[in-house]
Amino acid sequence: MEKAAEETVEKKTDVAVKGEAALKPQFLTTKEKFHEFVDSEWQKKDKASENQKDEETNETPVEEPEAKKLKLDPEERNKGGRPDGKRVRGQNKSRPHTKPTAYDEKRLCLSVIQDNRECPFGDKCHFHHDIAEYFATKPADIGESCYLYDTFGKCAYGLSCRFAKVHTTADFKTMENADLVKANEGRITVKNSLSKDLQNRLRKRSVAFKKSAEYLKTLSNNKDKREHQGNGDTRVAEVSADTTGGEQCVSTEAETQASPDKQPLVKTVGPLTDVDVIKLRPCEKKQVDFQDKLYLAPLTTCGNLPFRRVCKRFGADITCGEMAMCTNLLQGQQSEWALLKRHESEDVFGVQVEGCFPDTMTRCAELINNNTDVDFVDINSGCPIDLVYKKGGGCGLMTRTRKFEQIIKGMNYVLDVPLTVKIRTGVQEKSNIAHKLIPEMKNWGVSLITLHGRSREQRYTKLADWDYITTCSKLASPVPLFGNGDILSYEDAMRAKETGVSGIMIARGALIKPWIFTEIKESRHWDISSSERLDILRDFTNFGLEHWGSDTRGVEKTRTFTLEWLSFMCRYIPVGLLERVPQKINERPPYYMGRNYLESLMASQHVGDWVRISEMLLGPVPKNFNFLPKHKANAYK
Predict the structure, then answer these.
(1) Are 488 and 509 in contact (CB under 8 A)?
(2) Which of 168, 425, 459, 515 has its CA 20 to 30 A from that of 440?
(3) Nearest 5°: CA angle at 96, between 92 and 100?
(4) What is the set of active-site residues?
(5) How far apart are CA 4 and CA 584, in angstroms?
(6) Burial of 362 (0-12, 13-18, 19+ CB in 10 A)
(7) How far apart are CA 467 and CA 471, in angstroms?
């Protein structure tokens, strides 16, 4: 049997499997042997813990544990009607969604957590007020130290914290570290939160959008002018609008004769008006130096605030929030506004918005301009998903140039910070249109263009077209153009910079190995150890507990985002195991044994093993816990 397995490995190394990375022969193994090795260690630990429990309780288990789900072979998985050899693509659209309330049936009342014993809801309150009763049903503590207490001197989650024993006295009082509390007094770690007052005004539609109204009025006047000209109207209409910060004048000869008292919106002759004085000119807008910067792409789901903090530590220069829908922001949705939050460590930070109409996008830009602290605003005109594209947003904007122009000019008109745009090569695979749009966008007032070297149709099935990005970067000059696509090592980054782009944006490369920013800046391949990678995950979970909370809900939300990230991180192959350095982003890792058990575990492409890694950091999962990665391709079925 051993000889047969060795022959299998030899055949695998002699003939490289298409699409798989080349590894040193001594590390290669088969799928069966890999999972047998990974599972054996956990089975030993589970058995030891069960024996220990039996010794402590002196009781025999009543129920048998649930049988472990078999890891099916690709042939068996494909029996569901999929043609053999086809990789699963797209999103898991109907994946299980567990509500946060499912993890703790009855929570502790906020009045008890904040040491205010009088609950404003009295007998109508649905939460626990008896601390002893609450502790009887509360899950066991996860660890011996609370990150929030150790960092800030106090934990805002008090008795509901999953590390509560560290900062709780015998009589159920929450302790504080006076020195740390004083040191952090007045410190604002996260900005751009949605206030209750603004949320209420947005819901009641009582927020004024003065500058947006001015711009949209010029659009309607332009529309009237075109209609008059189309009907053969001989009246002379003079419409002048410098939407990037100049003056406006809308006047018609017939209108002046009909109503001599009516004045144009903004005088172009005579003394300065308030509008002239207050309005920023393009040269007076906030300037951001984008040249030669490393830009962490806005990543849906995984590009959350804790992940961006990890990337900032490794050297990312520019960070951007996840894509936010402009209509949801205008409606005051808390979940959408959470995507705009900015950590104090993010020195150059922008937000990305998606929309398909000039009125909503302009109002959204004014709302962001007046109520958040950002360095730039980015328009997402590269999103390929059907939900966005079919409405005319994302990639759809690239084919609706008149609307695209109106959106860019309108947002520029109301913003005091630079406006940037992220685009793809085009919509269809063999019909690039970015080179036609870029010269137009220069005239519309864009401060930065980011080009992803693939079309909407391609998604991630083919390599990014860096030759086309080179052509477009020349057309964009002097406006900076960033290239994006297939960067997973410093060598990839060096080749990208040689094309003449102003900088590079990194997306999946940062998810697979967030230390890529360090590698690029130090021009080296980092053979990072498995323990160092676990420390990175530990930092992420600590940042997650700070951001989402250290109670049961916060812990499980942190776990979910950790698992989403692990679905990308498992693609990384340690440098010391590679036959050919560096690893390419389109090469899938074959089954291999790491240099130690943890390295092998982190290489697993199975969801169950990702959950085990999360349990090393966040304790056991709840009984009703269920997880399926967002992208089908991540499980390499």
Answers:
(1) yes
(2) 459
(3) 130
(4) 383
(5) 30
(6) buried
(7) 7
